[in-house]
Amino acid sequence: MLIRLLCLGVVAATAGCATITRGSNDVLVVNSTPGAAQVKMSDGQTCTGTPCTFKVPRKSELNVLVTKEGCKPQQVRVTNRVASGGGAAMAGNIIAGGVIGAAVDAGSGAMLELVPNPLNVALECRR
């Protein structure tokens, strides 16, 4: 009985709500080759020269347009998936009986990660 209680205590201590441990936002990094390209995201955020970083909700799905004078514009879709750390936190919620925590994590997107991240774009430029 003591071993079971000890194991349950370890699970409870290491399993945290993903919303608290990971947060509902992520940092999206956009790089380009060549550098110093402009970035415009479908949520309205912009950057005047790569590399750029953007704070984005983890449950986002957006289009990222990378442009540079003399180069062909590239548009890339950024989506999300369940992250290994987010899945572990969700499993911890379920094991510890935290139905409310699991619902919050699912609603906030905290168990997700953006993909691809970092976003590396190779522009085709005239020479």
UniProtKB/TrEMBL annotation:
Provide any one GO MF term from the record: translation initiation factor activity
Protein name listed in UniProt? Translation initiation factor 2
Please name the source species: Paracoccus contaminans
| Keywords attached to this entry | Initiation factor, Protein biosynthesis
